[in-house]
Amino acid sequence: MEISASELSEVLKEVRQIQLRTGKVVSDVMAGEYHSVFKGRGMEFEDVREYSPGDDVRNIDWNVTARTNFPHIKTFKEERELTVMLLVDISASSGFGSTGYSKANIIAKICATIAFSAIKNNDKIELILFSDKIEHLIPAKKGSKHVLRIIRELLVSAKRLENYTSRAATSINVALEHLNKHRKKRGICFLVSDFISDDFEVDLRIAAKRHDITAISVADPRELVIPEIGLMEFEDAETGEIVLIDSADPQFQQEFTANVFQEEKKKKDFFRSLGIDLLEINTANSFENALVAFFKARGKRR
Questions:
Q1: Could you tell me the pTM of the whole model?
Q2: Residues 297/120, Cβ–Cβ less than 8 Å
Q3: How many CA atoms within 13 Å lie on the side-chain side of 255?
Q4: Share of the chain above pLDDT 90, in %
Q5: pLDDT digits (tens, 9 = 90+) for 163-188
């Protein structure tokens, strides 16, 4: 089901707002943090110039120095040409939101910030939208127009999910199989999901050997804490199953809290075992602050 004309107008307005909002974040902090974390393939020779005190003597160009009788050093520039792949979960569960924004909407903004940071560093961006199948693919390109196209596609998908026009389940394996089959050259991969999915360890392990992968887990606060307000109906967005629970029941609260803790620990241990960084974002909090803190922390480990 397509979104209406008024909803499309709303999406285009939000694209412009995101461009302005993320532009400040990118200019102020993120582009530099991104650059320090994701290095290019190496350094290539650019030019020679006269030696200045403090220059690395290992870079002296002895041939030019001999010809001119003045010490000269070689200068280099970083070879980037990196490809950033955004693997984004647009299954039905991503449409849930209790804070005024759905998980899918916050995911779009997270991806926008990463994408603008990437193009500011002259990298390419590719988008793969998936549920239980590959829903849409935008091949890797550079430029702000390309990023705006990606943001628009993410927001349109978010709007469809918020309108409950999808019952698609999550299969992270589908996205990883596509990545492993079609992207042999090493790149930077952001796997963005709520990770409500069946086992995908084998394909993720293969992908992690080829690419620099970061997992971004997005959760709504109501998935972590349920208020004690009595009888409530819960509907599984991906199956349509409806369950009636008593949220004020102490036993339910205890079991729910224990289950959330167990699942969160299991998720962290899983990604740690594969050597994959995990960034957890709660839609009730600032995703910008979470992104910046994450990249700063990762940069210090380099």
A1: 0.79
A2: no
A3: 8
A4: 37
A5: 766 667 889 999 999 999 998 888 99
Contact 123, 80 (CB under 8 A): yes
Q: Are 111 and 86 in contact (CB under 8 A)?
A: yes
Question: In this structure, are 114 and 252 located in the same domain?
Answer: yes
Clarify whether residues 73 and 138 are in a common domain.
Answer: no
Strands 134-141 and 124-130: antiparallel
Q: Find the CATH number of the domain harbouring 154.
A: 3.40.50.410
pLDDT in tens, 75-102: 766 556 789 999 999 998 888 888 888 9
Chain-centroid distance of CA 194 in Å reads 12
SS3 197: coil
- 84-to-34, 142, 191, 214, 277 alpha-carbon distances in Å: 11, 10, 11, 11, 16
Are 113 and 155 members of one domain?
Answer: yes
Q: Which domain holds residue 231?
A: 5-37+80-301
Is residue 50 domain-shared with residue 154, that is, in the same domain?
no
Residue with tokens 């910030």: 113
Number of domains in the chain: 2
- How many angstroms separate the CA atoms of 104 and 82, rounded? 26
21 and 84 share one domain: yes
CA–chain centroid gap for 257, Å, is 27
| One domain, residues 62 and 106 | no
Q: 251: part of which helix (H) or strand (E)?
A: helix 250-273
Nearest to 86 by CA among 19, 143, 154: 154
**Residue 180 and residue 66 share a domain:** no
Using the 3D structure, point to which of 61, 79, 97 is the last residue of a domain. 79
Name the 3-class secondary structure at 285.
Answer: coil
User: 252 and 129, same structural domain?
Assistant: yes
pLDDT at 24: 65
> What are the beta bridge partners of residue 215?
191, 278
Closest CA to 148 of 173, 171, 191, 115: 115
The residue assigned the tokens 């620990």 is: 265
| Cα dihedral sign, 252-200-270-217 | negative
